[in-house]
Amino acid sequence: MNRLFSSSRPTAQISMPVSANITPSEIRRVVDVNQIKHIHFGRVAIFSSTGLLIALVEFRPFTTMSEVEVNQWDELSQFLCREKRFTDPIAKNGALLEGFMFTIGWRKCSTKNEQFGLYGSVGKIENAKDEWWNRGANLSSVGCILGQSLQYVGDNLFEKIQNCYSSLGVPSFDQVNYEGDIPANQGECEFASTLTFTMNGLKNSPHLDKDESLYASGWWFQADKWTGQIQRCVKAVYRGKIGFPK
């Protein structure tokens, strides 16, 4: 497999240094790309300059999935689209160039003597309290779909991500209540306290996130921006092409 991206930062397959800064030369290597190799299917491995695997990307056309699996992604996409009723786009995102980013789950909050808070719009939640509190089952379903997808990508990737998440002692994004104690029997699919989702062709400038977790995972699929319904027809997709530096 051709090397698609190399980094001058020191990296390790499991533990990546969170203190390392992105250098100007690395940004230029990402932005000033002269040759693009288009990939429509299969698995892409991204390595560091020393040959260590730092990322995996899996392309899975809907035509290769079972109807049950496609319906699961459709359910997830429509649920996230409906979540816009309870939250506003993240405003303080300095890297944002285009599009919108939303968050659900638990974040650090500024209230004195409190460590966590549920991210959302108080005004929007006040207008639909019952719907807000009754989202638990749907949130758990979302977590399972994403967790199973991570297990598909890597043999022990999900286990490492889940162990890292568990060590932080934080609630899962599918928990709508938190009384200060994390359940000892957390669900098998739980792996993150926060879930972000983007719409309208989100674009970010190159940047480094200072998160507690050493891992990041993401999913991309084409969907109607008003309903969240999965779009299986390529002709119906506006933007969203994916390319990697050769």
UniProtKB/TrEMBL annotation:
Highest taxon of source: Eukaryota
Tet-like 2OG-Fe(II) oxygenase domain: residues covered: 68-231
InterPro entries on file: 2OG-FeII_Oxy_6
Protein name: Tet-like 2OG-Fe(II) oxygenase domain-containing protein
Organism: Austropuccinia psidii MF-1
Native organism taxonomy: Eukaryota, Fungi, Dikarya, Basidiomycota, Pucciniomycotina
